[in-house]
Automatic annotation (TrEMBL):
Source organism (scientific name): Paraburkholderia ribeironis
Pfam family membership, one: Tautomerase_2
Keyword field: Isomerase
Protein's UniProt keywords contain Isomerase: yes
Source superkingdom: Bacteria
Enzyme Commission numbers on file: 5.3.2.-
Stated name of the protein: Putative tautomerase YrdN
SUPFAM superfamilies: Tautomerase/MIF
Length: 103
């Protein structure tokens, strides 16, 4: 996200959940992908991004997961959920994007 979406390095909020075998069903959607037990299902919540930014994000994500973690590109599924500035509060009950505390 830092590279593709140009977000600050410290803009990091992550929730990681591991599932036991059989708790997560992830098919190939008819594309012929071979999934392994190491499948990664990633949901990113983000401000609106351009299509080229999203395509670059997908490319970099798969490249980095394969290079650094040995995860097959067939095992990476991504969904981006877009939100507006009013949908974010980073603490203290404030809407920092609206108040311009963050840009």
């Amino acid at each position: 996200m830092v590279q593709a979406f140009d977000v600050p390095v410290t803009d990091r909020y992550q929730s990681v959940t591991q599932h036991r075998p059989g708790e997560l069903v992830v098919e190939d959607t008819g594309l012929g992908y071979t999934r392994s037990k190491d499948v990664v299902l990633l949901t990113a919540v983000s401000r609106k991004r351009t299509e080229p930014q999203k395509i670059e994000f997908y490319r970099l994500l798969v490249e980095n997961l394969q290079t650094k973690c040995g995860i097959s590109p067939d095992d990476v599924i991504v969904s981006i959920v877009e939100s507006d500035d009013a949908d974010w509060s980073f603490g203290r009950g404030r809407a920092q994007f609206i108040t311009k505390e963050l840009t």
